[in-house]
Amino acid sequence: SNYDPKLRTGYHFQPPKHWINDPNGPMYYNGVYHLFYQYNPKGAVWGNIVWAHSVSTDLINWLAVEPAIHPTEPFDINGCWSGSATILPGNRPVILYTGVDTLSRQVQNIAFPKNLSDPYLRKWVKPKYNPLIQPVGGINASSFRDPTTAWYGRDGRWRLVIGSKRGMRGEAILYRSRDFKRWVKAKHALHTAGGTGMWECPDFYPVSIDGKQGLDTSEYGEGVKHVFKVSLDLTRYEYYTVGTYDQEKDQYVPDGASPDGNTGLRYDYGNFYASKTFYDAAGKRRILWGWANESDSVTDDNSKGWAGIQVIPRAVWLDKEGKQLVQWPVEEIETLRGKQIQIKHKIVKSGKFFEVKGIQTAQADVEVIFDVKSLEKAEPFDPSWSTNPQGLCGIKGGEVKGGVGPFGLFVLASSKLEERTAVFFRVFRSDDKHVVLMCNDPTRSSYKSNLYKPTFAGFVDVDIAKNSKISLRTLIDHSVVESFGENGKTCITSRVYPSLAVGSNVHLFVFNNGAEDIEMSQLKGWEMKNPRMNDGEI
Ligand code: DQQ
């Protein structure tokens, strides 16, 4: 194999080996963060799925404990698939997950901690009254999975939704319960949308209309909006809307400015799937976990012995204007920052680039602010691009000369730039405003063959004519590039596998392939240390 062990990530969540996918049941309980995840204990491909389990006190250093749930009973013998945790009154955590039963039907099960005084909640018990919810009454038994965290209504009933589809209509089927044991299907789904196919891993939660503080999942009323997210099996991307939840009707209606489906908003415009949020009562914030799969070959995955990472957990909150979410890596990640460099006020002339020296950047955190001095040369924007930023970036990648931009970073670059991943902005002029595109272009990231190297992109909702400045933060970790545009308004995660740009041969550059000069007002970069990453029991 041509796989280089130096491409294994250093501070992104991973077990020591084997396959991982969806984050499951994240929660904070009695001073400990729990992360469960879909895991194959036998290999680097999907299969034999159990709920692996790790614990942490800071979301950064992780200790692996024994898997919490594995197939043992008729109601989960063919699979223990994704689900969520709910903290019941009296501080009692429970897990709801999808089991694949003896008839290969998807059913929903419950599990309880065996011993609440074990700080790590190692053992979980599945009561005999499982399955809790079955696919009856016309529900498609092979498209019925991934229960959400439950929320408690003012009428004294719990609610949760389960992802499903009816034909091509994606559905979030709603159930209610008074005792968390007997669940009754509601007449109407919480939300549905035509043409979107199966809704995997739905997530539904309140956000405050004002400020960054998170809300616990049952919050409802004045000053609260709701967010609904699905993972679309069809596109393998996730979409969310911001909207209004009417608890009396038990229906969620997305705001007009927030389209459903595959032209809608995304947490991440790159490699990011099956995400889930939870309310962190310690930090009073809502935290998002998401899975980034590999984009090398299955042969590579087998030879390296692992596949899949979780991205850095992000705090999420509603943007001031209420039209989209903002995300930012949890501040704890900054405890890994080591050696630092800083550069101020440097003009990046049209067509030029320069290297950022003084720190190693295979494992780094880089924050940069660009100042767009003039917008005169901005390229005209074709309105047909407005629903397809990814396609636009496919035509106008990092090498394609522009007016204002492309300007940004070449990360995970070799010394002579033979290999590099471009993370950049490009500013267009439309009739009444400017349009800013953020792009991740890995087409020149590696000399290796058999890699999937899609360009990823999203628009950034910023008034560049007024602000002139735009920021970019990039978390670089050997084979992952996780970028946050304009303080977390647009995020893009990408997996890349350089052959030259590995270990101490990794370089970082700032570039400008636009006709207009750009000022880099400031760049701060830090080497990132290694946390404890599941190096204990599993
Ligand atoms: N992964 C799980 C399912 C879920 C899918 C199975 C999403 O429960 O729908 O591993 O990646």
TrEMBL record:
SMART domains: Glyco_32 (SM00640). It comes from the Eukaryota. The keyword Hydrolase applies. PROSITE patterns: GLYCOSYL_HYDROL_F32. One of its GO terms (biological process) is carbohydrate metabolic process. Pfam families: Glyco_hydro_32C, Glyco_hydro_32N. Residues 12-329 form the Glycosyl hydrolase family 32 N-terminal domain. Keywords: Glycoprotein, Glycosidase, Hydrolase, Signal. Residues 332-526 form the Glycosyl hydrolase family 32 C-terminal domain. GO terms for molecular function: hydrolase activity, hydrolyzing O-glycosyl compounds. Belongs to the glycosyl hydrolase 32 family. This is Beta-fructofuranosidase, insoluble isoenzyme 3-like. It comes from Ananas comosus (Pineapple).
